[in-house]
Amino acid sequence: MALKGILGFEHGIVQAPLGPDISGPELVAAVANAGGIGLLRCPDWECPDYVREMIRKTKTLTDKPFGMGVVLAFPHELNVKTILEEKVAVLQLYWGECSKELVDDAHSAGVKVVPQVGSVEEARKAVDVGVDAIIVQGHEAGGHVSGKDGLFSLLPRVVDLVGECDIPVIAAGGIVDARGYVAALSLGAQGVCLGTRFVATHESYAHPIYKRKLIEYEKTEYTDIFGRARWPGAPHRVLETPFFDDWRSLPSHENEVDQPVIGRSTIHGVEKEIRRFAGTVPNMTTTGDLESMAMYAGQSVGLIKEILPAGEVVKSLVEEAQLLILKKFNNVA
Amino acid sequence: MALKGILGFEHGIVQAPLGPDISGPELVAAVANAGGIGLLRCPDWECPDYVREMIRKTKTLTDKPFGMGVVLAFPHELNVKTILEEKVAVLQLYWGECSKELVDDAHSAGVKVVPQVGSVEEARKAVDVGVDAIIVQGHEAGGHVSGKDGLFSLLPRVVDLVGECDIPVIAAGGIVDARGYVAALSLGAQGVCLGTRFVATHESYAHPIYKRKLIEYEKTEYTDIFGRARWPGAPHRVLETPFFDDWRSLPSHENEVDQPVIGRSTIHGVEKEIRRFAGTVPNMTTTGDLESMAMYAGQSVGLIKEILPAGEVVKSLVEEAQLLILKKFNNVA
């Protein structure tokens, strides 16, 4: 049976931790209630009380297990300590080395550790420190993308590396529908992780204008023009909006620091000014010139045609994958 | 039945036309004899007599149908006329617009037209002029690559575009084994096109040192440093050999014209000097500093572990795809 769950969850469908606060309690609970793996996104600064509050709020919305994603490039020690105290089901990690000590601490707390990697080398390091699953992110993915290889190339190599270890490999990047899900299973994945598809849901905390652009636009670009000062050396994939097209050749010495303020947001409870070229996508609270803000999206955004309830995304993936398999592969023997 | 053939061939497995002369009569006949679609590579200059000779030589090695690939960026009118006169089964086209007139001429000669595209826009134009199938090339592919999107993103969008047209869509880029074949079928392809995997065969006309490097190296890069003067604006994917690593930042104003001669090859019957940074891979006749020559390869080269007979590549793809489908998807219902 190909469509079994992983890590104790009903389905092997992971909702990516969407920054800075797009995958909040409502989205995560909706995914969890549908049997998927919902991941809150931890703030990029130390705020353990707020982290605890996010987790507890999510627990009021679902009885199912869920997790939280942490970007290791930012301060996170106190936040991780709180995440482990609150015993979420999964600690997802990205953009930094996942240490043996961290894995051991998480396991002592009964929390599973799932790093996202962009290369075979990173996957090897993750296996060596005893992680519970690996998310393999292809270059197709939206948001911050560390690797250069597409899923067709990277995924089977990581699957071969993991071999008989009994560590599920989860495919991320460019997957939005059942075709991508079944393709990932064919390449050896046991689960799939979707980002852009879950931004475009009723429950995501993205601003309606950002959601609408995910439906309207078909093209993306891999760039480093957003958020250079705050997170240097972190290329990302964004929608080719008119703003991006106008500024795609931003000289390398320029960044968001000296740019004009173009809007305001409350992000994880903190009021912030948004400068032009900040790496911050518009959330539900954002005001100002939203059209000129970063709009992260994966290469498959052209396949997303409507804003759906998040639970329906999970349900459709499972049901349509079963139909696709029956239709395409039932008579091969 | 998913693993049916396309375009009248036994299997939907296409051997890419490998330049400049790597997919010669021996390789193409071996693929054809195994039931795949073998494609000769037409020279990049007008030489109709030589083209006729190549086709006729191939016909002495196989009774099965085969085709020829033409790069439209180079002079080709007389060559195409000859290809149609010789009535090969398939005319494959790349890197240029496939006109309605050309499609009509080919159809009048009983020749099927199969362009390779790198974007949805190109696919739309191809459908509009009445082609017989479309090869969709993902960014993962080796050699010259026109598009930026990976197969997970580009392939289903082209499949959706083609819709009910009854035009097979063939996936190219990063596919080397049955996992990639089944993944491509899952995303809606009816066939797959493999390049690097067929360079690494007994029958390919690649130099043994080039074949050996395909086994030894795992990493590739998308670049434009090779063959800039001869074919400007044509980025390509190559192995990350030590030569490439040393020179990856070649200034944009430099090209092969003023570089030293580093070797010699006979290419399609013509003796040529190979200058440093030429776009020419070493073939069986090449002498000189082969280590410093261009070595095209796709992102999945790390999955290629041995040089195989080309017929065995075709046979294994079919047999292992059937096994994979039975093992993974037999109990989904």
Describe this structure in words.
2 copies of one chain form a homodimer. With 333 residues, chain A is α/β, with parallel strands linked by helices. The first copy, chain A, folds into 2 domains: 13-203 and 305-329, Alpha-Beta Barrel (TIM Barrel); 208-301, no CATH class. Chain A is built from 11 helices and 14 strands. In chain A, strands 1-2-3-4-5-6-8-9 form an 8-stranded parallel barrel, surrounded by 6 helices. In chain A, strands 7-11-10 form a 3-stranded antiparallel β-sheet, with no helix packed on it. Chain A has a 3-stranded antiparallel β-sheet with strand order 13-12-14, with no helix packed on it. In chain A, helix 7 crosses helix 11. Chains A and B meet through helix 6, helix 7 and helix 11 of A and helix 6, helix 7 and helix 11 of B. Chains A, B: One of its GO terms (molecular function) is nitronate monooxygenase activity.
What is the CATH topology descriptor of the largest domain in chain A? TIM Barrel
Number of strands of chain A: 14
Helix content of chain A: 25-40%
Q: What is the CATH superfamily label of the largest domain in chain A?
A: Aldolase class I
Q: Give, in spatial order, the strands making up the sheet with the most strands of chain A.
A: 1-2-3-4-5-6-8-9
Summarize the structure.
The first copy, chain A, is of the alpha/beta class and 333 residues long. Helix content of chain A is 33%, strand content 18%.
Q: How are the SSEs ordered, and which strands pair?
A:
2 copies of one chain form a homodimer.
Chain A: E1 13-15, H1 25-33, E2 37-41, H2 48-61, E3 67-71, H3 77-85, E4 90-94, H4 100-108, E5 112-117, H5 120-128, E6 134-137, E7 143-144, H6 151-162, E8 169-172, H7 178-186, E9 191-194, H8 196-199, H9 208-216, E10 220-223, E11 236-239, H10 242-247, E12 261-267, E13 270-275, E14 287-288, H11 310-329
Parallel strand pairs in A: 1-2, 1-9, 2-3, 3-4, 4-5, 5-6, 6-8, 8-9
Antiparallel strand pairs in A: 7-11, 10-11, 12-13, 12-14
